[in-house]
Structures are given as structure tokens and as C-alpha cells.
Design a protein that fits this description.
Layout: E1 9-11, H1 13-42, H2 53-76, E2 79-81, E3 96-102, E4 108-116, E5 129-131, H3 135-140, E6 148-153, E7 156-166, H4 169-180
Parallel strand pairs: 1-2, 4-5
Antiparallel strand pairs: 3-4, 3-7, 6-7
Helix pairs in contact: 1-2
Amino acid sequence: MQKNNDNKIYLDKAGYEQYLQEIEEIREKLNDNGKTKSEAYTGAVGDGWHDNFDFEEAKREELKILSALRKKLEGLSRIVIIENSKASDLVDIDDYVTISISFDDEDEEEMFFKLVASSSPNFNGEVREISVNAPLGASVYQKKVGDKGSYKVEEDVANFIILDKRKTLEVDDQMKSKRSK
């Protein structure tokens, strides 16, 4: 499945609901900003907008919010809802994945993450989440343990091998404790 070349946004049902919620939050932000802009306009001396820094700031913020809303709305037509695969040997949505990743011949490290189909993955949680839409996520999605691959971020190419995949975090914790003995 080519994700980065066709500009599709792959989400599961929960990710789609989250995407719609983000649109609503942006609309609420736009509405709140409109009230701020109106208050700044009516509270100004003279014609309401000349040398009114609060109004100008609210107008700039409005343009940023409108841009974010436009981007999200345009994304709606590119969303593809994906479901978990029936193939248990393939890396799938909500799997915990361990890879060995190298950026050059001498710099190699293990990386552990959860593959998600969300528009806003959590990078700072107990387990880092990687979106299936990210270059790494797209590269490991639907691959098997032992498969090798690479992905590109800006001008850097990273090579990886999939070491392990799990459906639950607890099973992975048990495997880590076995490895350390």
C-alpha cells in the first residue's frame, strides 16, 4: 500500500472520529476568535480598525485558523478508512513494533513504538505512537517480522529490520524481561 505517493490519509474508525473532532475544535476556535475580533473592533476609537492592534492580531489569528480549517476540510476527501488485517503475521494497526534502525553503517539502535491510524499520534506517551501515515509507519505497515526496509525523512534515509510485533504491551514486557536474563 503506497501512502506517501498518493496523498491519502489512512485512518481507522477511531482516527476518523478524532479527525472530525479536530475539525469541530478548529471551528470553535474560529468562532471564539470572531468574538474577540468583534470586541476589539467595537472597543476601538474612531473607525474601529485603524491602529487597533488587538483587531489586527485577531485578524491574523483568524487567517491562521482558516488555513488550518481549510487544510483539514481538504483532507476529508483523501481519507481512507482501514481496518485491522486478518493476517496475524503482518504488522497492523495497534501493533507494538520493535525495529532495529540504522542511519548509516555504524549508527544502529532499537526502536519500540505502537503503530496507529490516528491523525494526532502521541509521541510523548508511555509508548511512542507512530502514524501509519508517517514515513516509518507506512514502511512497516503490512510487513512481516524479519522484513527489511527503508524510509526517507527530508534528505536522510534510514534502514530498518522488523525484530518483533505484538498485539499487547504486556506480552512485550514479558519478552524484554526474558531477553535481560
